[in-house]
Amino acid sequence: MNFSGVFAALTTPFVHDGSVSLPDLKHNVHRYNQTDLAGYVALGSTGEAVLLTRAEMDGILATVKESAAKGKKLLAGAGAESTAETIERTKRAAEFGYDAVLVKTPYYYKPAYKPEVLIAHYRRVADESPIPVMLYSIPQFTGIALGSAEVAALAEHPNIIGIKDSSGNVHGVADCGGDSSCVPDPGRLRSQRVSVDGDRRAWSNPGAGVRASRKVCGAV
Length: 220
Fold this sequence. Notes:
It is a single chain. The relative contact order is 0.16. The protein has one domain: Aldolase class I (TIM Barrel), CATH 3.20.20. It has helices at about 20-30, 55-65, 85-95, 115-130, 140, 150-155, 195-200, 210-220; strands spanning about 5-10, 40, 75, 100-105, 135, 160-165, 190. The chain is globular, with a radius of gyration of 17 Å. It has a 7-stranded parallel beta sheet with strand order 1-2-3-4-5-6-7. By secondary structure, the chain is α/β, with parallel strands linked by helices. Strand 2, helix 2 and strand 3 form a beta-alpha-beta unit.
């Protein structure tokens, strides 16, 4: 499947009480349908997926799928702390008809996440995901970056199709310490930022403060 082109990282609209506004999300997708965007990314960092409940995530996946114009490719954020939950989310995205999933690194138990652990995590997810997997490295939020060694190893998996590198270091995954053979097939894994503008709009959602405040206060 070809994922070339520009993908919009969708924001999640909220109303004043902090609940998700699916009608506004539908409106936004309909506006995007009028452009030449290749597709959309739902439940990414820009969509504030880490602040959403399971029911809210399902509502967003359904709304984006129903609203997207024919021919637009759809990616769903599916990363979670556990491998089992991540796999479950990939299956859920497939059930909703998404074309691929975007899987961020787990990050809570940072001392345990050695390269071999991350590789094993992603391989297990890719083995069991019914749709293609795109790696997602966003260390400014997770504190965990996918290095060139991990990316090179994961590039061999037939169900891992690319990487969204939001680290700001666009040469990072291509830097193999001068060893040009560390990636057996340089064309196998495409390093692509799914939506550069989407990352820059990460804080443009006017409801972000409402949702973040609700979650933080609720935890106190």
